[in-house]
Amino acid sequence: MTSQAFDFAPLFPAGLPAPSVKWTGSPKYNFTGGNNDPDQIPIDGLLAASNAVLKREGRTLASYGLASGPQGYKPLREFLATKLKNDAGIACTFDDILIVSGSLQALDLINSVFLTRGDTVIIEQDCYQGSINRLTRLGVNMVGIPLDRDGMRMDALAAALADLRQKGIRPKYIYTIPTVQNPTGTILSEARRVELLKLSEEYGVPIFEDDCYADLIWSGERPPALYAMSKTGGVIHIGSFSKSIAPALRVGYIVAGWDVLSRILAMKTDAGSGALEQMVLAEYCAPHFTTHVPKLRKGLRAKLETLMEALNEQFGTAAEFDDPKGGIFLWVKLPDTVDSVKLYQSALRAGVAINPGPEWSINKPHSQSRLRLCFASPSHEDIRQGVATLAEICRKEFGVPARIANVERAAT
Ligand SMILES: Cc1ncc(COP(=O)(O)O)c(C=O)c1O
């Protein structure tokens, strides 16, 4: 008897996402993703915290949800309530916070309680790929609002809301990354925050505030969160430890009133997010967060300067960008002749990974010659070499830049 391999394919229902591609290792020069700096992980502090909290409270691991209930480890929520009050002006208690498995889970949970196929949401035109992909998969219509140096443009938002109202459409939410936007690195000014809240109230459309980069502003000073400024409670706020401590921990959080949080909690059916990570974070962050973050910011700023210098040297005026106000990304515009998706493919073959603009925008023509570079994880040396390699590929494929590192060369 011959045994044939079992065929699972006919059992998969229609509408599943395309299958994943097998991971084959990291490229030599990796400017993709939201990774952080490996040299800035506070390993000793996390080790000490882990030891201390496990010795003291390890027995609570015997219960789902520890001894804290379904919203997550209470000392972590208490740390967050204090931090959010001090930094973002949010007056909440630990009870208004739900710990989730990275803010990606927050996106899924919030989408699952608000959205059905055919709904409309408003987002920033250049936006986090994880959010765009989720909305696309859900069959939701996205209305993109352009940004300038002060973040989402309120004139364009007002026009979009008026237009939708005229068509009888009430969007389900306005999704924004107001404090160090991904990918543009802009910060929504306080005056615009006031306008945004006014528009949200006028049109009865809640705001979904994704604030995961707020700890990484170079100046260390951030405007108050929209959640803090709202007088009606029409804001849902999410955040993460991915950018301030480490993405692989997978710890994020949602802040919302109980009317919404109770619906979200009912959708979180995984019996709680990983307990060890929450315990270690709470133990580490309470005494160390405020000293760790300024050091992290300083290191990230230095890497950004290396990246901007390398781009200026290798691309000259062919690479245009604004110095971002914080974060881990640079949003770069190359000449219109450059197709960043094609550049991505050629660059990858040469060991340089970049994020092509169209994956981070719902305006494809606007983003076609743009790319996003993450500067947090590559070393200074890899940033320099990676940008030099990218410039060489760009010149060969697209004839720009004509000058590389101040040496005039003919396109080949
Ligand atoms: C704007 C934004 N939201 C959410 C996430 C998800 O982060 P995590 O799930 O690691 O908290 C990211 C990650 O890069 C992001 O850029």
Residue-averaged pLDDT, rounded?
95
Backbone shape = globular
What structural category arises from helix and sheet content? alpha/beta
Task: Specify the helix fraction band.
Answer: 40-55%
Binned strand content: 5-15%
Secondary-structure element order, N to C: EHHEHEHEEEHEHEHEEHHEHEEHEHEE
Quaternary arrangement of the chains shown?
A: single chain
Could you please describe the fold and organization of this structure?
The chain has 412 residues and is of the alpha/beta class. It is 41% helix and 13% strand. The protein is built from twelve helices and 16 strands. The mean pLDDT is 95. Residues 34, 102-104, 128, 130, 177, 182, 210, 212, 240, 242, 247, 252 line the site of pyridoxal-5'-phosphate.
Features:
412 residues, alpha/beta, 7-stranded mixed beta sheet, 3-stranded antiparallel beta sheet, 12 helices, 16 strands, 41% helix, globular, binds pyridoxal-5'-phosphate
List the helices and strands and how they pair.
Elements: E1 29-30, H1 43-57, H2 74-88, E2 97-100, H3 102-114, E3 120-124, H4 129-138, E4 141-145, E5 147-148, E6 151-152, H5 154-166, E7 174-176, H6 190-203, E8 207-210, H7 226-229, E9 235-240, E10 252-255, H8 258-267, H9 275-315, E11 329-333, H10 340-349, E12 352-353, E13 355-356, H11 364-367, E14 370-374, H12 380-398, E15 403-404, E16 407-408
Parallel strand pairs: 1-12, 3-4, 3-7, 7-8, 8-9
Antiparallel strand pairs: 2-10, 5-6, 9-10, 11-14, 13-14, 15-16
Helix pairs in contact: 1-9, 2-9, 3-4, 3-8, 5-6, 9-12
The structure holds pyridoxal-5'-phosphate.
The site of pyridoxal-5'-phosphate has 14 residues, from helix 3.
